[in-house]
Write a structure and sequence with these properties.
The protein has about 100 residues and is mostly helical. The chain has a single domain, classed as Orthogonal Bundle (Recoverin, domain 1). Helix content is about 60%, strand content about 5%. The radius of gyration is 14 Å and the shape is globular. It starts with a helix and ends with a helix. It comes from Poecilia latipinna (sailfin molly). This is EF-hand domain-containing protein. GO terms for molecular function: calcium ion binding; calcium-dependent protein binding.
């Protein structure tokens, strides 16, 4: 399997691992989002949770999840998010809440 196909599989598996624990296997509830972010992206705060739910319906579907992951990859490529330096809250506010 190619690296890209493997990465796509991991993204889907991660979504599926957390989705559905509250009932609907096609979306992530707020509780499921919190659990996923705590384990998969430690230190990502409220800003990240708000970024996930693009349409404001209170849950995150697979499309919103993929858009969020792509946004993070792009931001990391551009070195906007500096996780290791603990600048996330400042950067989050500057770029996503301003």
């Amino acid at each position: 399997m190619s690296k890209l196909l493997g990465a796509i599989g991991i993204l889907k598996q991660t979504f599926d691992e957390y989705a559905g624990t509250d009932g609907d296997k096609t979306t992530l509830s707020k509780k499921e989002i919190a659990a996923m972010l705590k384990k998969e992206l430690p230190g990502a705060g409220v800003c990240t949770k708000n970024m996930l739910d693009e349409d404001g319906d209170g849950v995150v579907n697979f499309n919103e999840y993929i858009i969020f992951v792509a946004t993070l990859v792009n931001a990391l490529e551009r070195k906007i998010l500096l996780w290791a330096a603990n600048l996330y809250p400042v950067i989050c506010h500057k770029y996503f809440l301003a």
